[in-house]
Design goal:
The chain has 489 residues and is of the alpha/beta class. It has three domains: 270 residues, DD-peptidase/beta-lactamase superfamily (Beta-lactamase); 104 residues, D-tyrosyl-trna(Tyr) Deacylase, Chain: A (3-Layer(bba) Sandwich); 91 residues, no CATH class. Helices cover 28% and strands 22% of the residues. It contains 13 helices and 23 strands. It has a six-stranded antiparallel sheet with strand order 2-1-23-22-21-20, with helices on both faces. Strands 18-8-6-3-19 form a five-stranded mixed sheet, covered by helices on one side. A four-stranded mixed sheet has the order 4-5-7-17, covered by helices on one side. Strand 22 and strand 23 form a beta hairpin. It is globular, with a radius of gyration of 25 Å.
Length: 489
Amino acid sequence: MSAPRRRLIAGVALAGLVALAGGAPPAAAAELPRAVGRAFLDQGVPLNRVAIVVQEVDKLQPLFTLDPDRPMNPASVMKLVTTYAALDLLGRDYRWKTEAYLGGPLTRGTLKGDLILKGYGDPKITVEQWQAFMDALRRAGLDRIDGDLALDRSYFALPEHDAALFDHEPLKPYNVGPDALLVNFKSVRFVFTPDAAATGVKVVAEPALADVAVGPPPPLGASDCGDWRSAVGATFVNDAARAQITFGGRYPATCGEREWWVALLDHPHYVHGIFTALFRDAGGAFAGGVREGRAPRGSAPFATLESPPLYDIVRDVNKLSNNVMAQQIFLTLATTSAPPPATPAKASDAVKRWLRGHGIAIPGLVIENGSGLSRKERISARGLARLLLAADKSPVRDEFASSLAVAATDGTVARRFQNGTVAGQALLKTGTLEGVRALAGYVIDAQGRRFAVAALVNHANAARAAPALDHLVQWVYENGATWDASQQR
């Protein structure tokens, strides 16, 4: 890790442009550097649809602002609120548990009854962790289950989730809804591998679930690899309990090996399928069904799966912008101020109470699910900046800062800033929705000065705003320490 990055983690007029923007002057527009404003206008983004706050972390006043108090849709930048609150309220070392209980006597390795699984909202149970859980059951003496799998998902009380509601893409893993017993993001990874002679292609589903039927693989084709998913002509018939995949096209031979993640089944049937497959792989015997159940009160669990620590979880959430993980964390926050079951409303109340308790004023805040995958969520650029400044002075500063993507290095900004001197010198969270682009985080200049940066764009041309947002970050790195607004008057 470079010395500048260690320092960052340790600490983390315009009238002509306004006329070109085609609207009334935004609040504090006169303070915006011309070069920054021009970068947005050059992309067809009017300045009255942009909000910006830049502030050196040790200063009392912002370096400059643009419409700082307007509540705007932040997309995934809202994850900053969720993850900072979680690190502070739950603690950096917090771990989720998933418990197994015996619903009958265990005699010579055979359970005469149901196996009950109780979830507490673990955001990241991978295939590997689930396999370790199955191995733990076997080591504890469970060889055979004569009953069913009973799922206790009562830790969360959630409205019915429509995976197609947000953008009509119900099979996309980012649209998977939260659940108290979320396993492997309720998704199946399809791996396409041409054989050595390039005469055919093998399709493997991971995990291999009995109720997910995969038809014959597509033949190889000679088309360009660009839109290979359309080329294979996949058809997905997906119901709550069963799914079937067929291929009507061809797989481009030039693609080599590729993978495709698809969200299938509903939560209970997915858990049943992956339990059945991996328990059998571990040497166990199970042929039962799945149903809702409740863990016995006052009983010790037969086996327990623990999650990685929270500080590790939030890195995935912020660097990779994982929506369902953020929602799992957000719902868990509800239990810090109210008894379970957790609900989105309780979680929102808990976050707002926490903000008030820390003196972080964010008027107009609307937090629906904590992930930013929402058309309702709102926050102002000033509110984001206040959050960043508070986090920089908090006991969880290092864990929060290190969860952000490093410019030109990893996460959602791995391919951005490649030709800029700010590469490696900014820790950032990005946000992307149709009509929304956002960016917030910390920039450190060559002298070690740290700046909090928050920028939100809500406009039909927002998809074109990334170069302007990048220009803002680069400008702060180069000019933040010497900027004087009077120079451009």
